[in-house]
Fold these 2 entries.
Entry 1:
Amino acid sequence: MIPATFDYVRAGSVDEAVDALKQHGDEAKLLAGGHSLLPLMKLRFAAPEVLIDLGRVEQLRGVCDLGDGRLAIGSMTRHIDVMDDPLVREHCGVLADVTAKVGDPQVRHRGTIGGALAHGDAASDLPAVLAALEGTLVAQGPNGTREIAASDFFVDYLTTSLEDDELVTEVRVPKIVGPWGWHYEKFTRVAQAWAIVGVLAMVKRSNGSIEEARVGLTNMATVPVRASGVEQALAGHSPDAIADAAANAADGTNPSSDLSASAEYREHLARVLTRRALEAAAR
Amino acid sequence: MTRVGMTVDGEPYEHEVEPRLLLVHYLRDVLEKTGTNIGCDTSNCGACTVHLDGRSAKSCTVLAVQADGSQVDTVEGLAEPSSDADETDGWHPLQKAFHTEHGLQCGYCTPGMIMAAKDLLEENPDPDETEVREGLEGNLCRCTGYVNIVKAVRTAAAELREGASS
Amino acid sequence: MTAVDTPPSANVGTTKLRKEDAHLVTGRTQWTDNLQLTGMLHVAVVRSPMAHARVTKVDVSGALEQPGVVAAFSGADLADHWAGGLPCAWPVTEDMQSPTHLPIATDEVRHVGDVVAVVVANSRYGAADATEFVDVEYEPLPAVVDMEAALADGSPLADTQLDTNRSFTWQKIDGDVDAAFDSAPHVVERRFINQRLIPTAIEPRAVVCAPPREHREYTMWSATQVPHILRLMLALTCGVPEHELRVIAPDVGGGFGSKLNVYAEEAICLVLAKRLGKPIKWTESRSEGYQATIHGRDQIQDVSLAFNEDHTIRGMKVELHADMGAYLQLVTPGIPILGAFMYNSIYKMDALSFTCHGVLTNKTPTDAYRGAGRPEATYAIERLMDEAANELGVEPFELRERNWIKHEEFPYTTIAGIEYDSGNYEAATAKAKELFDYDGLRAEQQRRRDDGDPVQLGIGISTFTEMCGLAPSRVLGSLSYGAGGWEHASVRMLPSGKVEVITGTSPHGQGHVTSWSQIAADALGIPFEDIEVRHGDTAVAHKGMDTYGSRSLVVGGYAVQVACDKVVAKAKRVAAHLLEAAEDDVEFDAGTFQVKGSPDANTTMQDVALAIFAAHDYPEDMEPSLDSDATVDPENFSYPHGTHLCATEVDTETGAVTIRSYVAVDDVGTVINPQIVEGQVHGGLAQGIAQALFEEAVYDAEGQLKTGSLLDYYVPGAPDLPHFTTDRTETPATTNPLGVKGVGEAGTIASTPAVINAVVDALRPMGVNDVLMPASPQNVWNAIQAASSASTTAASAADGGAA
């Protein structure tokens, strides 16, 4: 299928992109890697009048150490470059590992971290990892920049708290310090399909018990969800508590029913997969 | 219309195109390089896989304007010209192995499959069966059941390793 | 059974690498969409978004104002161009109800995707854009979606021009079914659902049609399996004389039945080329094809088996509801009917009743999809045999062996009235069990059951046969099929000793060029490399019945063999003449004509070909030509068989199914090219497993296709499928000189029940006796939940509800 026509703006810098956004408002869409937007445009589910291509904005690519215990990943950094980045691998391996499960190789070669997050699809794998990491996104607009917590960024299905004239410039994640283990359970119909349910479990171990646990759920609501009840039930407890704690993994979720799974089944999967992910992460 | 220039299979091209023109349509309809195929409209099948600046990409999900200034490699540029009577002499080891292992039937997915496999082998010169299957996750074949594709990729990997070490 | 004497051969039976591959692996291909002709225009199709509606207005004027648009037409605009509706060639009953199927609907649309208008522009993009400016108004009509509800009194009609949704009811009864079931000690009865599938050949359909240029003929390139049938049918549909239409199937990227048809877009391109005088191209997008290209399966099967005390089968009853969709396409009604001969499968029984209700609905038409009628039948009988084994408390193999036709009983006339020429179910089964480590896996299964492992192991069996090689023309005639099942081949002996084989089959991935070269090479004694096989162009291969139904080798390859034999017979006379010997004294072997007892008196096929070209010296009562052709009509179907074994690991917590191992031992008779045969089995397995585990076309109650693209219709990728262990037994067919049986569909037919039997077997201790296809995690989990709530209910009932 064929996208509808649009005016094409190739931004050379963040400022140019912001200017273009300001000028065109909600008639414009930002083009990052294109792997969320172009499929929608080809099916004509999306038909922006103006497309602002960020592909030449070099300042949006790459990873740096912020020096405050966090890494900053340029929004136009491709999945493959996140996966392969030495800083990410050393300090935030969980992000590299989950990114390696996004889409398929070709998608990972083109898709970007900022594009995937700004699309706001809770079936995508990265929102849950950002939620679990308690990462932030830096948005830039005509009035400057602001930093948005992951928990405030995802608002509804395909909806974020970004303003029409803002773009995501950076994704900030904490360096993982200490004896953390993690595991992402991605449950799909076929390998290349979106997750029916995904569970990211992160566990910090201390003297044979769980000091802290974090659980991020993919596709269990219109936004990524933290299984906070599970997390609280595990803090300070032995791994033997995982099974009981995981039984509450679906609390506070609101999954949809669709062709792949009923809401009830998704809730069941969330419980089973949370237990498995926690057990793997605690190992 | 927007001016784009790119190198495709080693040849430079420049055209005025509509910004919405998909790279795969640029290759097929404008450059008449029809070796790269289209099998779906949802970025699932991978028939349109080419290499964009050295990495595999689905050319149905890239605008030609995004590829401006890039190097594009398609299945058409894989084989070396051969003066030998046996044309397979010039083929890339993947092309040879898909042939010898019967890794294709109708052949429609093959250009994309070969380009995806080439990327895989550049990253992992000795993949096991599972790694090959996962590496080809973005490409669908409806004829072969994949068994002989997996075999072909591993056969080509062995030949490439041998070529690299000799 | 008599073994066929096959001549010693150098090519047949060996793997020759495919001649087809060179252009495919290097990208020098000729897919229909590759064609760019001078002045070519692009057509885009406006389709109904509604399952069923009256079309009250179609205004194309807005589209005509768009840049680059050359023409736009509604159904009414082109109504005078159709000599008739799109054809259904298989009227299975005399009173079959068939909606009129114009290529562009005029006043009623009957499924989402039905064509309402076309736009012609000078670019692909321009045509697509302009479709949005065609103004169509619809008055919604109730959509008929559910087959059984469609047959109930008072149901809305899928086609308001008819007075029923029942297209036909077709019945075949053999033996005394009442006697078989009355007083039968055991009856096993089940309902199975064969879900709707979308074939998804990786090349979408495409059509290019050029108006007459230097010849007075239209030339159509189409991604079709059936150029010959298409030519005839388009001539009848579009009023273009058959001799003024040439159809070419260039490189065709898979079909699996979906390109065995005569489609609206083919007729539209021909009529537009005629009307506009320009070459016309249409290329389907995948999601468009999911609405516009035929679907497959979609049957509800109510089946029962009656057993004697000794576990021999007394008889079988089959009642089918088969969803035809909105129109009867080329062979739509015949697909479920093919099952009439297959439900008894490899088993002996005294009675079989088969009733099929063909039902019209407001969905995309169904038609042939790989296996076509036989996978459904095989699924039902092989699932039922496992259910029976469970109910009767016997090992599933033991029950099968008790009932199958023994090797020494061939040829065997089945209860359905057809004669299986050869087979050896014992041999295939023994080999499969050994390769599979059947006993070892059964032991592991028991261990896991004993341990309460959350991942249970299941073993699924499918001992199948099928009927293919369509088909004896007289039999097809008796089934009201609109054509015969013969095939044509011709052999042209070129003066330089090279050979052209022309075949009426139309390959699209099956490797006919290679296999036919092997047959001809051995028959003529000419090197494999010196043979070219031409096909798929009605101007080159003027006669043929094309490729479907696993017919190409058993009928088309047979024709090649016969044509070659005729060449040899002629050449032998010429050789005798040249060697000054009596014809009876000349022997032919491996390309050489030799006078018996005179080692120096010999000549070669190539020399004879040159001599007959020069024509200076040849027998007086001969024409100076070795060229020969053959049109063969098979005397029987072909009956490949085999034993497939599948081990699945079923995660009882999530419902996820993983295939741990899959063994297929197929008997397809004599094998021409082992590598190609293995490839056909692999591909068939993938599609059969895909039905079992992944794929389903889903419509909602309004008749909207919910699985409208590859995003929702789950075609398995490489990580989703296992390695396949394949092997063969070879029991030659006795009904063709090559001893070959069809192989194209066997894997698909056999594998679906093997997988589902394995899934059910894994869950049997939990009380699960069936899992809906596809056995998705949700469906498996549902089955487990239903079984556990049933057992809870039963337990609490047993407790007297005390609490």
Entry 2:
Amino acid sequence: MSPRITFITAGRILRQLLNDHRTVGLILAVPALIIALISAIMDEAPRVFDQTGLILLAAFPFMLMFMITSITLLRERTGGTLERLMTTPTGKLDLVVGYAIAFGTAAAAQTAVAATVAFWFLGLDTAGPTWAVFLICIVTALFGMALGLFVSAFATTEFQAIQFMPVFVVPQLFLCGLIWPADQMAGWLQGVSDALPLTYAVKALTEVQLNPDVTGDMWADLAVVLGAVVVATVLGAATLRRRTD
Amino acid sequence: MPSTPAIVVTDLVVDRGKKPVLRSVSTEISAGTVTGLLGPSGSGKTTFIRSIVGTQKVKSGTVQVLGHPAGTKPLRRRVAYVTQDASIYRDLSVKANVAYFAALYGRSRHEAMQAIEGVGMGDHADKLAGNLSGGQKTRTSLACALVIEPEVLVLDEPTVGLDPVIREELWDRFRALAAGGATLLVSSHVMDEADRCDRLLLLRDGVFIADDTPADLRAATGTANLEAAFLHLIRALEGVN
């Protein structure tokens, strides 16, 4: 792996993204608007919004990164640029980490806008520090990226890649505690919930919400998500083949 | 003509799915030459080319490039590959595309601009690649390979759909690169390009039916042009069968 090539790759991916002005606008504005909508819906119940809004802050970059990574990488695969890159000094990890840096930056920008709106204008409240929320959101976004990288290997068209959203993303959103607390689900479903990385992102966020100081439990939960990032990234890198049929 | 082989292919067999695409082909390609790979579409040209750059899974046989097994690490700085469909980023400008590939090899933006000028795309440098015509995309893709000044340049049908003037310029460029010591392998299904090559490999149904210089090929078949020579060879083969 070469840090120089990794950063050149990240720069190229970011430039591709920035050339698409409409996508940049959607990335920055949509989560903030949806969170504002949720806040208005839960107008009478600010305590509930504190939970839901907080989870949404992490859920959006997770979904976004999954989607743009799987589509962008699919384009590299089908457009021939991946095959070309595999004949250059670019290593598989250079490419994967380049993606992580580029889209991690996009996730950070998205989270910054959404969090600013949620905390300052919508009155979202946590006992713990904002930076911890930010950190959890970025790591969760990276998990979305790594998952998108992995599943893009199983799609041959962009249409299929989009269909992977309800398969890989939606169940995690339903089971992570966003729409219903995990401990009030059917017993077997709690087991499933415990096996899904997004659940740990929500647990970590809940720790920040309830405790003024950063807790060991939060770090433990975040470590699980980070572990999932590493596993999915390695699996994703393994799907990049220098030689194909 | 220099005789050091830059590319050595020995008993190469490639299957795609269950279908054999290359049936035990062998050849040696000398350094500092332009070799034409000719054959109808579906004859295995792209598969042969992908085997040389090391992106094709092969069933058996070996491919050595500059003394290393095809596609191995030391070759990734020395071999450039231009795919049949332009492998460039549609959402980047011509300049950003070429500068990216240049940067991977530690080449400057200035060198990228020179490569863009070299393929006659200077006036379009700031256009998004997705908005270019087919021929312009091909030339951009070519610039991405030329900018790294490779020792071995493998081109899959690089002149399809190009203006005759630009085609002429590119062939002059290929000749100049070979004169400078580079080894070029160019696939084509246009016979009139064959005369610009030092040597021709005629591929049909996964086997080489000829491996000769254009002049010798004409002489051996007693024909005036290469199209006729190719036909002669095919008929002779079918007569044997």
